[in-house]
Amino acid sequence: MKIRIINGSQKTGASNTGIILNELNYFLKKDSEIINYTLGIKQFSPEIYNEIASGDIIIFAFPLYTDSIPSNVLQMLIDLENCLKKQAFKETVIYTIINNGFYEGQQTHIAFEIMENWCLRSGTLFGGGIGQGAGEMIGATKNTPLWKILFGNLIRELKIIAKKIERKETFEIKYLSPNCPRFLWEFMALHTFWHPLARKNKLTKKDILKTPIN
Fold this sequence. Notes:
The protein is α/β, with parallel strands linked by helices. It has two domains: 2-180, Flavodoxin domain (Rossmann fold, 3-Layer(aba) Sandwich); 182-214, no CATH class. The protein has nine helices and six strands; from the N terminus they run E-H-E-H-E-H-E-H-E-H-H-H-E-H-H. Strands 2-1-3-4-5-6 form a six-stranded parallel sheet, with helices on both faces. Helix 1 links the parallel strand 1 and strand 2 (33-38). Helix 1 crosses helix 7 (152-166). The relative contact order is 0.14.
């Protein structure tokens, strides 16, 4: 089985998408031919596109951008489509994993619709995937005991989808939120992400609460 995995995050370093894919790779059997690619902001060469198109399974993973697909991933889909159409005789199954900063994983539903429509256009089979909410908490908790508590559902579903991938079976779309109440997610986001980010940029609480001038 040839499995191609694309990290569509635009971050040049560590990313929440990368953390999720590391977990998925852990569950995939090593007897498959697995190749991981990091897209970044530059597009792949024609040789890489052909290598990806040769896969029996292609897994896309990326963060949600304005309720849709990041521009770098969108351009890749356009370029990859031509390569896939040349291999129309071969059934390729597409799985997708999307994370977003909102609490609800359901926020990714439009991006999934786009991926499903692209599969129809490119002659591939839409295999479903996972839409994970509270994406920024992934990186913030990965190396702490909270990781397996807050994202236990994600870890479980990655294990399940890995088995589906190995059998080339379709998987329903699972929308996930962290295993904590929404108010706790808001509190953690405020005190572990937004406030530290504001301090890093030398902003005070007074600066943040200023009324914009139109």
